[in-house]
Write a structure and sequence with these properties.
The complex is a heterodimer of chains A (154) and B (829). Chain A has 154 residues and is mainly α. Chain A has helices at 5-29, 39-62, 83-115, 118-152. Chain B is globular. The chains are: A mainly alpha (154), B alpha/beta (829). The interface between A and B is large, with 37 and 47 residues. Chain A: This is Molybdopterin oxidoreductase.
């Protein structure tokens, strides 16, 4: 029997780490941005924790692992930029990365229902809500800086 | 007991300029008849005999602070004014003789201070009343403009024309609205803030306007909005008379405004004293006086509050009916505080577990609990979350809106409330909601202009960030000195492509970096109103002429509006007022129907004494306490915000708000928000559907008779982050190598809190260090860098381009001028 669930768990695990790294990279690239103070690091820690909570399930389902299909994973973030437009684009990238995580939680929740894995569902509920909060924060910040960045900034 | 009477303010009075406050006036709580009377609405109270309705039993003690050699008999006239040291709102009178202010006296009949004064009011620092009028040494008397790198004196016409010309040039470019920004301080009058807000929002259309309140009262304001729907302290100073327990959360060394502390102390010394809990550092008068003093480790306020809430809930010390009928989010709060038994919090906070239990017992047994929240909460790690937990204590116990039960906030600059209410501090005027299109439309109709509603407003740190990036080309700073108070501001203001306008009383460090300096009139030299910390509005009159050509801030803004020729949709002048009274009337119209309704507060009534908002023309009194009967401003059409995630500051939209307000499930918090997530997965949107049904007339979207509920906002304790992350503009880390200042763990010294906190001297030229960030309040948590000795500089008529400290410090001259306080330096300029 082969189940692709493990591939999706692996994808999400990897995406959470990528999001954590990207949050830290964006923070480093924009040291003078007040709104990133503290928050990026905090969200990165959450992402790391979420990835850790996934690990037992990756192991649980990897017994059924099939060969990883091609192009299961594609990179969404390739380094932070500089400047005000750079910040907006970086946040945009983070948003896409977080969206990747968010939809993965949703799909894994569906699969967890399918195999009746209550434990996994619990993790998805908790961590998925955190990812939803990440999206909300990114959206709030991007909406605030968009008019100035897109119309006024040099 | 005798000791306390001999030294009423503890070490405090002795340590500051040697001035002492007057004798103690111990008193007991009013009788039950008076308490009943105090709970009645104003009109009913009028029918009662005077001795019952006359308010507070706190004895009057008129403090008089006069120049040496002057007695009260020498004074020619007394002009009403308000404390300019802090947001307490003490009413006073200025003593005028020979066209000079020669002293101050407390207003005996006033509801706030009953004649008492902060001893610093006269002796005080450079912003004290002593500097009113012609003999205020170091005052700016003529406008200055920068010519060939130096500031030179000029006329008002030249200076204002430059400002207007630069504004027009910037506005003509694409996105012109985004090229002009405003930063204001806590020392303007309400009329001036409102005028500034209309110029900024409607005239220029910029979201870039903020105030020094961002560094002091932003968290208090944010927490009030998150819990109760709108800003505005719910309590009244009168609650200190009626209460049987007082909790002072986050006492700073001064225990908040001195007059408030005197009232607390007088109750403690009289019959039937209230229990006193103090949370804050050792060594303060409140810490010595308190029955239970909890000296929590810096940055752990939320852990303590969660433990106290845990105790209240676990022991059943809460008002089940009140919680069920008037609050939302109880289940989630229970889940959150479940992880904070007293023992765990004791470890986190570094205090004995018995102290937490004793404090909880007092909170749980109180019949009338009054809270005073101060800097130790507002300016500390997790400021908004911790302050929300104080609100939660009151909500759980139903301790709001009746005599003795209320929450007060201490701290912030004297006119902070005016800035917060009029929209000069980043809000929408009249405590309106940026995210509510109806509120934006209301303002557009009032001003007869088109308004974009892309809010919220840009916060101060971001305004300076835009200036640094070059997208803001003109920054107008009125009554504030960000070079000394905002991290990095000095560096930013030196940018060649940034046109800086500074409007102030003195040639501050910020003014030295300006392109145009406008000399402003101070309090006592102009007329206007000030709203204090329990919503009491006072009028402050004109006692003397401003020095030289200095003008009231209002006149400067009106002059600018005329030169810019701001018009409404019909081509009429946008600003239709011309003096303080007509500006106040314009503000009354803006406040109509909002929680801060000023329509019944007129200049005539204010001349008879302070009045608390809201007050409509039909009511004979202001409103002493908000939220009587558990009626909150959380209705979606009334509230000022749809709420934020307390950790990240992410804004919730209208729909999650409706779900929280009217749904079965508690408000969604990031930490434990499973329900909405599951709901989102299943695609349910019941409230949106219900709401749109209401809009199409097919029925109400909420149960009839259902009152809007206050929110019990849960928060997890987070360990303070230690790393300073902002650039420091030349400031050095503290000697022990930590960038988080001189206190442990992510704290919290404010640099702008009026003259009361004594920190300003230690900070030079953009040197404060960011130790953390409150994402909801957009408030940087600051600690001052190590002090650098200020120096006296001689500049007569021609002013140096940069901060005078720079070359002198570089050449080592600073060492010779050690220790002279800011006041003396400024006086010699």
């Amino acid at each position: 029997m082969s189940m692709h669930l493990a591939h999706y768990l692996g994808l999400l695990h990897r995406s959470q780490h990528e999001l954590a790294d990207a949050l830290r990279a964006v923070r480093r690239a924009h040291p003078d941005e007040p709104d990133l103070t503290g928050v990026c690091e905090r969200l990165a820690v959450q992402c790391g924790n979420n990835a850790r909570r996934l690990e037992p399930f990756v192991r649980r389902y990897s017994a059924h692992l099939s060969e990883e299909p091609e192009r299961m994973h594609s990179a969404l973030f390739s380094g932070a930029r500089r400047g005000s437009l750079g910040l907006l684009r970086d946040l945009h990238d983070l948003y896409l990365l977080a969206t990747q995580c968010e939809i993965s939680w949703t799909l894994i929740a569906q699969a967890a229902e399918g195999v009746g894995d209550e434990e996994l569902l619990d993790v998805v509920r908790h961590c998925g809500a955190e990812t939803a909060a990440h999206l909300l924060w990114l959206r709030t910040l991007m909406r605030q800086i968009a008019p100035q960045t897109l119309i006024v900034a040099p | 007991m005798l000791d306390r009477i001999a030294a009423p303010n503890g070490s405090r009075s002795g340590s500051r300029s040697g001035s002492r406050s007057g004798p103690r006036t111990p008193y007991g709580p009013p009788g039950s008849v008076e308490r009943l009377a105090a709970a009645l609405p104003g009109r009913l109270r009028d029918a009662l005999p005077t001795e019952i309705r006359s308010g507070s039993p706190w004895p009057v003690r008129v403090d008089v602070l006069l120049d040496d050699g002057i007695t009260e008999d020498d004074v020619e006239s007394w002009v009403p004014a308000v404390s300019m040291l802090h947001s307490g709102g003490d009413a006073l009178e200025l003593a005028v003789r020979d066209g000079r202010v020669v002293g101050v006296r407390g207003r005996a009949a006033d509801r706030v201070n009953h004649g008492r004064l902060d001893p610093q009011e006269w002796q005080g620092r450079w912003q004290g009343w002593r500097h009113a009028g012609q003999d205020g040494a170091g005052r700016l008397t003529r406008p200055l403009v920068r010519e060939h790198g130096r500031l030179v004196e000029t006329t008002w016409d030249v200076a204002m024309d430059r400002v207007a010309a630069r504004s027009r040039e910037l506005l003509a470019r694409p996105g012109g609205w985004g090229r002009v920004g405003f930063h204001t301080g806590g020392r303007l009058f309400l009329e001036e803030y409102y005028t500034l807000a209309v110029i900024g929002r409607a005239g220029i259309g910029t979201p870039h306007m903020d105030c020094d309140t961002r560094l002091s009262t932003a968290a208090a304001s944010a927490a009030l909005m998150e819990s109760f729907g709108t800003d505005g302290p719910p309590g009244s100073y009168g609650d200190l008379d009626h209460c049987d327990a007082i909790a002072m959360w986050g006492c700073d060394p001064n225990c908040g405004p001195p007059v408030l502390w005197e009232r607390v102390l007088d109750r403690r010394l009289g019959p039937g004293p209230p229990a006193l809990i103090a949370v804050g550092p050792e060594g303060t008068p409140a810490a010595r006086e308190a029955d239970v003093h909890v000296a929590v480790r810096h940055g752990t306020n939320v852990a303590l509050m969660n433990a106290l809430l845990h105790e209240l809930i676990a022991n059943g010390w809460y008002d089940e009916a009140y919680v069920a009928n008037h609050t939302a989010g109880f289940d989630e709060l229970c889940r959150a505080v479940d992880a904070y038994p007293a023992r765990r919090a004791a470890e986190i906070c570094g205090v004995p577990v018995t102290l937490i239990e004793q404090a909880a017992e007092i909170l749980g047994a109180a019949e009338r609990l009054a809270s005073v929240v101060a800097g130790g909460f507002h300016l500390a790690w997790q400021a908004t979350a911790a302050t929300c937990q104080v609100n939660n204590v009151h909500l759980l116990r139903g301790m709001l809106g009746r005599p003795g039960a209320g929450v007060l906030h201490a701290g912030g600059p004297p006119s902070a409330r005016g800035a917060l209410e009029t929209g000069a501090a980043g809000g929408l005027p009249g405590l309106r909601n940026w995210a509510n299109p109806r509120h934006v439309r209301e303002l557009a109709a009032l001003w007869n202009v088109d308004l974009p509603h892309w809010g919220p407003a840009t916060h101060a740190m971001r305004i300076f960030r835009y200036a640094e990036e070059g997208s803001i080309g003109l920054l107008w700073i009125s009554g504030a000195d960000p070079a000394r108070s905002l991290p990095g501001a000095g560096r930013i203001l030196r940018r060649k492509d940034l046109f800086v306008v500074v409007q102030d009383l003195f040639l501050t460090d910020t003014a030295r970096l300006a392109d145009v300096v406008l000399p402003a009139a101070g309090w006592g030299e102009k007329v206007g109103t000030v709203t204090g910390a329990d919503r009491t509005v006072h009028i402050s009159g004109k006692a003397v002429e401003p020095p030289g050509e200095a003008r009231p801030d209002l006149d400067v803004f009106l002059d600018y509006a005329r030169r810019m020729d701001f018009r409404d949709r019909d081509g009429a002048p946008l600003i239709g007022w011309h003096d303080p009274r007509s500006a106040f009337e314009a503000w009354q119209a803006c406040s109509r129907g909002r929680p801060c309704d000023y329509t019944g507060i007129t200049y005539e009534r204010l001349r008879r004494g302070g009045i608390q908002w809201p007050c409509t023309p039909s009511s004979s009194h202001g409103t002493e306490r908000l939220y009587a009967g558990g009626r909150f401003n959380t209705d979606p059409d009334a509230c000022q915000t749809y709420g934020h995630d307390l950790v990240t500051g992410a804004e919730y939209g209208e729909e999650p708000y409706l779900r929280a307000q009217y749904g079965e499930e508690p408000y969604r918090r990031a930490q434990s928000g499973e329900e909405p997530y599951r709901r989102a997965q299943s695609g349910e949107e019941p409230y949106r559907r219900a709401r749109s049904g209401a809009e199409h007339g097919s029925g109400p979207y909420r149960a009839p008779g259902r009152q809007a509920r206050a929110f019990l906002r849960a928060a997890e304790y987070e360990h303070p982050q230690h790393a300073a992350t902002m650039s420091l503009d030349g400031a050095a880390p503290s000697p022990d190598g930590h960038l988080d200042g001189r206190v442990n763990g992510g704290s919290h010294l404010n640099v702008l809190n009026g003259g009361a906190d004594g920190v300003v001297d230690g900070v030079v030229d953009g040197a404060p260090v960011v130790t953390g960030w409150d994402a909801v309040a957009r408030q940087p948590l600051l600690a001052p860098a190590p002090p650098v000795a200020p120096v006296a500089v001689d500049v007569g008529g021609v002013y140096s381009a940069a901060s005078p400290l720079d070359p002198l410090i570089q050449s080592g001259v600073a060492a010779t001028a050690g220790g002279c306080p800011v006041s003396e330096r400024l006086e010699e300029v």
